[in-house]
Amino acid sequence: MINKKLLKYAAKVKSELCIAVILKYVFFFANLLFVFAAASLLESVLKGNADSSERLSFFIAAALIAAVTRFLASLCTSRNTFAITKKVQNAIRKDIYAKILDLGAGYLEKSGTSQLVSLAIEGVEMLEVYFAHYIPQFLYSVTVPFILFAILFKTSISAPTAMLLSVWLIPVSIVFFMKRAKKTMQRFRNTYEELYGSFLENIQGLVTLKLCNRDGDVSENMRKNSETFRQRTMKVLSLQLTSIFIMDFFSLVGAATGIFIVIHSFMNGNADLKGTIVILMISAEFFLPMRMLGALFHAGMNGVAAFENISAFLDQTSSSYRCSGNAKPERIESVVVKDLTFSYDGKRDVLDDVSFEIGKGESVALIGSSGSGKSTIGSLILRLFDTPAGKILINGRDISDFDIQALRSRIALVSQHTYIFNSTIRENLLIAKSDATDEEMLDALEIAGLRDFVTSLPLGLDSKTGEWGSLFSGGQKQRIAIARAVLKESSLYIFDEATSNLDAENEEKIWKNIKEISQNKTSLIITHRLSMIKNCNKIIVLDKGHIAESGTHEKLLENRGIYFRMFTEQSELETEGVEA
Amino acid sequence: MKKSFFKISLRLLKFVRPLVFKMLFSISAGITGHAAAIGMMSAAALFLCGAAGKTVPYGTRFWGYLMLILAALRGILHYLEQYKGHEIAFRLLAKIRAELFDSLRALSPAKLVDKKSADLVTSLMSDIEIIEVFFAHTIAPATIAAAMFLILSAFFTGFHPLLGLTASLAYLAEGIAVPYLGFTLSRKSGRIYRGTMSQLNSGLTDSLQGMKELILFGREKEAFEKIARDTVSLQKINSDIKKQEGFITGTSILIISLFSAAFLVLACFLYKNQSLAETELFASFITFVSSFAPFAALSSLSNTLTGTFAAAERIFDVTDEIPVIKNRAGAREMKGSEPSLECCGVSFGYNKKAILKDLSLFIKPGTKIAITGESGSGKTTLLRLFLRFWDVDKGAVKVKGEDVRNVTLESLRENTATLSQETYLFNTTIAENIALGRKNATKEGIEEAAKKAEIHDFIMTLPEGYDTLVGELGGRLSGGERQRIGIARTLLSNSDIVLLDEMTSSLDALNESAILKTIRETMKEKTVVTVTHRESVASKSDIIFHIKGGIK
Fold this sequence. Notes:
A: four-stranded antiparallel beta sheet, B: 552 residues, alpha/beta, ABC transporter transmembrane region fold, Rossmann fold
């Protein structure tokens, strides 16, 4: 299955690959022309022939043609290489992006994005090198020794045979050697990274070390470790260099043996002088291709590995959405969850037979300790995943009746981690509403409590947000999330642990904002911070995927059940020590 | 601080001085290795001349065997050259790192606490790598090429001065002119390409990392379309660069081809002129066409020189910096026993900005005090003055009754313990991280400290317990758990002065309350100074000092 896919991409660049190999042969034949012309001239010199001036002119012409041909071939090769790189990059990225869209947000929720990033950038780069350099060189190296043999066998059979055998001994011996050395090399492979990592962290933690007065010890350790590391590294290095030695040995000794044989044949009158000179001059050509392939060996391995990763990703089956209807809701008026059972991995049920309702304009809180399944409900209402068991009804209709995009455009999510894109504040808000005017954005920022901050910046809305939104503090990032939610013109708000990463001060302020914007709007507030949700219309307590209790704050306190316990615990912790 | 190229080169070479013999060994192996590869072909040529009936010194057979021997020798010499070369590179890397670390040690903690320090660290790390490349892959090839140039030019001149001249010109063209051409061509476009490339990659990364957000807002298709447009622009630039590279490669090959042809033509004329014998013609030509390897290796070097010098300069800036805060002559160990802290008329500023003005305060032993104020008011700076990050401009800072300038820095820090916003954990075991608090810590001491810090139970839930590597836990340690490890460290050190710098700022409300509770319970007899901007934290101390504009 893997080979088929690799061929699929190779097919896209098959003409460029052919051109690449042909260009290598152009180099080869240009070189051959030069060698034959030179050999012819040299023969006449060694034999003391009279027609050497003719051969000289021929040589000059041939040399010039060969030189210009090779120059032009270089130019063509680089353009061709670029064409291959470009096509491969475009083809693979296109497939990756399509797959991301196919798999949807649910996949990203589960698996995170770091793997994607490394596939789409590094993996693709490795494949570019693989197709643009390794494959053409491979095809060329495998064929050219035979071509050479065919050209040379008229002069001598034994010499080219010897060289041909040597050429093949190179990959055979390297593979054999690598197999034996693999274990040792794997053990020490990470030495270099370890050393780098520990050096970096010693610098980054230097303030801590100084204040604990341990920096001297660390410096000592670094020097000691350095020596141990050096020995390890040199061991690995000597193994790697041995494979280079093998290559050098077989190439040069192979060439020398071939030359020795043919000159002997010449001495015995079995080879002509010109042919012998040709073999002498061309011996390098037997080996150079395989040596270059050796240099590209790593590129070859990396390419195959990268390809396996990309294949695995592309082969994933999407969490096939039950077919979606086309209905586009105007507003979301009610949400009914009925007998909902859900599991991420098919083994453990995260939600078990959950039923509740969110009526129009109601504020419903969903609480529970981590692992109780509360965030999952938010994901399911956003249809990040489908549920095999149970129903979700939006405005009385099954959720699958609706067009997914249209459904999501009516729901605003403020979650625990808000991603701020590395562009401007404006761009970060436009994703919520692509035609938002500056006024609308500033109004939203006002409601989110961020307007003064933004207007105080020299570039205002056009200020750069930096990598990972470094312009903003944690609290401010959540305010951007709220501003986005406000801009979005949605009728259902979902707040999913919106303040879990914030400190006490920020938390209180953000909660005020949340209450303001969710007034008279249908909202689902998922949290474990009980002091903030006292005034919700309904509080639902989840415990290990079941609904344990539900009701208003007062009623639940009266119950003296889970809610009562959690609530008293949290308020004790908050007020403790203030009296002391 | 623009040091001259010359001075920087000298300093870089000084680094190599202790390793000069190894370096010479590697270079010699390189020279003889190349000589063996070239000599092998010369021997082959003479062997053939002998076989063709010409007179060759030492007889025909000799050259045949010499050819085989040199072929085998080349592999060994190449191995030795590379082995020694890498060994040198590794040792130099270790040396530079050690020196840099020691310089930073002496300059810390002051140098590493301002905003720019993270950038400084990042750039120093890559600067070291750049310097290593210089030592490992630049000096030797350049020296070898220079040596081969001299040897080969002399060799060919021995046959005839014109041949020597032709060879020299060829080598100069191949080894200097072509790389220089490549350097000038790529300088501008290379920069633009790298800039655009990193922009595109970070844009792509950004979109992928925020993909869930984009999908939920329905903007994913737009994002991909933008990426496609950016990719097209990048590919245009890449195409230009590849064309340039092809041109340079082509030129390099052209030079070799033309000079090879010219050499043979010249040799033929000299032969016709009776200035050169047939064997000399044959041998010199074969040698010449086999001799370009050492010079072709130089083509990639040119691009890195400016970068190397810039990197070296940055590193030297750090290692040349003279630490201002160090133990004064006659500094003693701290001997006071009452854990009091005092400021007497302290004024302090840096970067020409006054931060504290004539501040005086006295903290009695065992007090719990909070220092509050807006950011920029100087509260953290005050804490750092107690730790002697800097010396005051006016007045005196006293810890345990002694002026901090009169005691050794080491004893000052042994007598104090600090906790800040995030506890830095090293990628070793939890036990070792806690053990940083005290030299020669014992297992029992570590466990006791962890129990008091209320982190022992958590550690016992881990499969390897105290021997768990922090790095493997990755992000699974919560903020609260990290701070508790910090508290364990502090408790282990048993200092009776504890300085807390915004210690709960990155914790949520519940965690904050729990941590503050632990601190209150475990540090009853110690003098605790808490710097904070939060009411909720300050209210838990006995006394509050409020700083505004550098004054109490």
